[in-house]
Amino acid sequence: MDFVWKYLSLLGKDLVFFLLGFLVFYIGKKVKDWLEPRKLDEELVRSDNGALALSLSGYYLGIIILFITIVSHPGDGTGLIGDVIQVSAYSLLGVVLLLVSQWLNDAFILRGIDAQEEVYENKNLAVGTVLFGGTIASSFFIAAALNGDIGSKVFPGGLGLSISPIWERTLIGAILSVVFFLIGQLGMILFTFYYQLWIPYKLKDELESKQNLAAGIAFAGALLAIGILLTRALFREFDSIMQTGILLLLDLCFAFLVIPVLHFFAGRVILSGSTLKHEIAEDQNFGAGLLEAVVLVSFSAIIFFAV
């Protein structure tokens, strides 16, 4: 009957982290409610704002992605209390970084577009879809940056601070995670400028003036793809900051080569009877945008797990 007691013991630990996950989600929701310019409940229920629902869904899903990744690698096994402290600290930091990433995405990825106006006033589903994809993409490399206990690997002897070793390791890991987050976010912003060089239509016009949902879905798929590929370096066995930084740069260059190839593959093979420019920019074909996004995300996931 030992296995029963072991099961109950693990179930108790699982319950602790389930409640912690609920608390992190609730805190993230309340902070988001406070930061938004309007009351979210009224916009969602009374105004039936689908664009806002898309944006919020990306944020909420991003929080869950963060928490699941962090709780699956809580640290170096210092016990339940140590794991709870580290998971709590990293999860709350992850929520903060996710909010920062949304601000950066609004400012740079949707450069020239007033995201708040498009979401709240125009209920622009195309922009809402991009916000959905961009936030989840950011959550991928934020989660990877906060994954594990890299602080103890970089500074195995600590920093000599007059605080608990658990808090010291958590602090070091948090600082390094912020650095990797900024590198990943910069990579995603650079990709956005690069993306607009080779797509056969003007992205800003499609998203803002035409509210082209097909273009929004295709772009969201590209953001998810770059997020997946940038995450590869952070999930490898950590050896040094320099090595991880170089691998991030190599993965970014690799993504710059692979994603356009997948884009043209989707256009020539999946939509062999037409072109992506015609289907997305002219016909605003929702299905074409979705198929392109699926191709980009699917093959990026294959690269992540297999290459």
TrEMBL record:
Keywords: Cell membrane, Membrane, Transmembrane, Transmembrane helix
Pfam family, one: DUF350
Membrane association type: Multi-pass membrane protein
Ranges that cross the membrane: 6-28, 49-72, 84-104, 125-146, 166-193, 213-235, 241-265, 286-306
Recorded superkingdom: Bacteria
Location within or outside the cell: Cell membrane
Any one of the GO CC terms: plasma membrane
Family of this protein: Belongs to the UPF0719 family.
Name of the protein: PF03994 domain protein
Source organism of this protein record: Leptospira fainei serovar Hurstbridge str. BUT 6
